[in-house]
Write a structure and sequence with these properties.
With 646 residues, the chain is an alpha/beta fold. It folds into 4 domains: 229 residues, Pyruvate-ferredoxin Oxidoreductase, domain 3 (3-Layer(aba) Sandwich), CATH 3.40.920; 181 residues, Thiamin diphosphate (ThDP)-binding fold, Pyr/PP domains (Rossmann fold); 68 residues, no CATH class; 123 residues, Rossmann fold. 39% of the residues lie in helices and 19% in strands. It is built from 23 helices and 23 strands. The strands form 4 sheets. It has an 8-stranded mixed sheet with strand order 6-5-4-1-3-2-16-7, sandwiched between helices. The protein has a 7-stranded mixed sheet with strand order 11-8-12-13-15-14-20, sandwiched between helices. It is globular, with a radius of gyration of 27 Å. The N terminus is likely disordered.
């Protein structure tokens, strides 16, 4: 019942194929075309950690209203190869469709060379239990019995026809257009405006006019073929709608990069690592900024390793620039000593942290939320840090700017925490309003402020914050060291100074906790007064909100508390919000339920239900809805582990 309700007001399209075959490009063109037609889009990218060859896929969900997450059900699957069919066939809903290469029908499923042995075992078991034959055609016959429509398309035949029209005989140049071919067939089945798709193709290849022309020709040929061959066989429709606002279609990585520009970032350091590197590469591509008619630059530096990345960012921050570095788990491990140095020296450096599957290299291109405790405690000794966790792409943008203000105002390292799901998701939004954002550099002094005075960088103050000046400022002589130091920065091991300096640094967290607005600490959704409350953080946010809306329509009440500020941790606010609740339901993408553990540690209130996922794939609205409904109807175990996703 719920699946019909969710599919009713949205369409879910999936493209899949070998890595490097253009799946991402196909999804970007498709998403742009839908955006041009006034539709909201939510996209999710999944890919292996090899460069080329293994299976990747892209979900796109479209609706005429804003959507926050993916769902399990696929309405149309565009399969570039046989593996995509066998991996995702059971996700396609009855009366949904599969676009498949008709020339691969005799492919032996268990002989597909890229299938891992674990998955091959699952396939064999499925085939035995459901009496499915060994060829791809047998699988498609099984799909038809489930009332799934099959649309066989002779990919190479069509591509050769396109090549003849264009005068292109080189096979490699022709086969690159399979992705656009599947877009043409898909959107013809949906009866979507071809002109908008052409516009999207041209915009995607805007810097290569000849390639754009070739792809438009491929699109039109495929579109015409599908119209003539399949006529009105497919029931699902994508219809453009009026949009009375400007919108953007943006990924999480891009949103963070844009937010950093808004926040005044002028130095970004990094060492390449997934999924963080996409952000730095996006900044590199837009290093020259137009501000008030003048050119400004962001310096983006690829360092030799993550140790150099954190230390050079700290150096830039001490010199007066707003500086950041961007990384993921293994890289952050190497930064731990540099983070401690920055904490000891009260450096307002920003670290953008993208969580992924762990431990070690783990699942380097998959999602995870298992680094919360690590981020909260990384480094040796005790020193303050700000940790702000985003829950969606919009928050990624604003938080990326806001975190610079927090770092400089409270003079400590600030970590902007998110996860791979947000980094590699894409979403349609009304253009972000940044007019109200103001840069706050805290107690930053200049040369005139120091005239006739003795400057002490680490002077003891009532609130722990000492006025600072950039390195090189006249009359502002001071020192930085990895050792404990006195007010001027010189090394000191005296007991009294040690106590005073430690307390000076730590009391700034108390100040931050008092001054940071409530909306940056917690966000509430659904029925806050309900006896049932969900607690979570990061990317599960969208799936939880949509699931609660569905449950409310069925008369089931629950609220959702999103925790955004992890340090200083808002224990009092959380304790008051959870006090007296019948069901506290913890939802996270990790094994231990780390946020739930921290809440118990800080407030004494332990969640009594856990919904967890650690497959490396993000949560969907469907599976969160199913899990929450079991809890609210007293049919659930205390711990549910979600498994959707290939």
């Amino acid at each position: 019942m719920v699946k019909k309700q969710m599919v009713k007001d949205s369409i879910n399209w999936m493209a899949g194929g070998p890595q490097g075959s253009g799946v991402d490009t196909a999804a970007n063109v498709f998403g742009r075309a839908c955006g041009y037609g006034g539709l909201y889009v939510f996209g999710r990218r999944e890919y292996h950690s090899n460069i080329k060859g293994l299976h990747s896929y892209f979900h796109l969900r479209m609706s005429n209203k804003e959507i926050l997450s993916n769902i399990n059900d696929v309405d149309l699957l565009a399969a570039f190869d046989a593996e995509t069919v066998v991996r995702h066939l059971n996700e396609v809903v009855p009366e949904g469709g599969i676009i498949v290469d008709s020339q691969q029908m005799n492919t032996k499923v268990l002989g597909i060379p890229t299938l891992p042995p674990e998955f091959r075992e699952e396939l064999q078991k499925f085939m035995n239990e459901n009496n499915v034959g060994e060829t791809l055609n047998d699988w498609l016959e099984y799909a038809k019995k489930r009332k799934v429509q099959v649309f066989p398309v002779p990919y190479m035949e069509l591509l050769n026809q396109i090549g003849q029209k264009l005068g292109v005989t080189q096979i490699s140049k022709i086969t690159r257009m399979i992705n656009v071919l599947t877009i043409g067939v898909s959107l013809a089945l949906f009866k979507y405006d071809r002109g908008l798709v052409e516009k999207a193709v041209r915009e995607t290849f805007s810097e290569k006019a000849k390639i754009a022309d070739m792809n438009v020709a491929a699109l039109n040929h495929a579109y015409a073929y599908a119209e003539a061959t399949f006529k009105d066989n497919f029931k699902h429709r994508l219809e453009k709608t009026d949009a009375n606002e400007e919108r953007i279609f943006i990924t999480g990585n891009q949103a963070v990069a844009m937010g950093k520009v808004l926040g005044g970032c002028r130095v970004q350091t990094y060492y390449p690592i997934t999924p963080a590197a996409d952000e730095s590469e996006y900044l590199e591509a837009h290093e020259i900024l137009k501000t008030s008619g003048e050119d400004e630059a962001i310096i983006v530096v690829q360092t030799e390793d993550e140790i150099a990345a954190i230390n050079s960012a700290s150096g830039a921050a001490l010199a007066g620039a707003r500086a950041a570095t961007s990384t993921s788990g293994p890289g952050f491990s190497l930064m731990a000593e540099g983070l401690s140095w920055a904490g000891n020296n009260e450096v307002p450096v920003v670290i953008t942290y993208y969580q992924r599957g762990a431990p070690a290299t783990g699942l380097p291109t998959r999602n995870g939320q298992a680094d919360l405790r690590f981020v909260m405690h990384a480094g040796h000794g005790e020193f303050p840090r700000i940790i702000l966790a985003s829950g969606d792409i919009r928050e990624c943008f604003y938080d990326a700017a806001k975190v610079f203000n927090l770092a400089e105002k409270y003079q400590m390292p600030a970590i902007h925490l998110m996860d791979k799901a947000m980094a590699n998701c894409s979403q349609t939004y009304p253009v972000f309003d940044y007019s109200k954002f103001k840069i706050d550099r805290g107690q930053l002094l200049g040369e005139k402020d120091l005239e006739g005075k003795e400057y002490r960088r680490f002077s003891f103050t009532e609130n722990g914050i000492s006025p600072r000046v950039p390195l090189g400022t006249k009359n502002g002589v001071h020192w930085y060291t990895g050792d404990e130091h006195n007010e001027t920065g010189h090394i000191s091991e005296e007991p009294k100074n040690r106590v005073m300096m430690t307390e000076k640094r730590m009391k700034k967290l108390e100040l931050a906790e008092k001054e940071i607005p409530v909306e940056d600490k917690l966000a509430f959704f659904g029925d806050q007064g309900s006896e049932n409350i969900v607690v979570s953080w990061g990317s599960p946010k969208g799936a939880i909100i949509e699931a609660l809306r569905l449950l409310k329509a069925e008369g089931l009440s629950a609220g959702f508390m999103q925790v955004r500020l992890m340090s200083p941790f808002p224990a009092d606010l959380i304790g008051k919000a959870l006090a007296g609740k019948k069901r506290v339901i913890n939802v996270e993408d990790n094994y231990c339920g780390q946020l739930g553990e921290v809440i118990k540690e800080k407030t004494g209130i332990a969640p009594n239900y856990h919904i967890l996922k650690y497959t490396g794939r993000p949560m969907t609205t469907t599976e969160v809805y199913d899990a929450l409904k079991l809890i609210l109807t007293d049919k659930a175990s205390k711990r549910q582990v979600l498994m959707y996703g290939s």
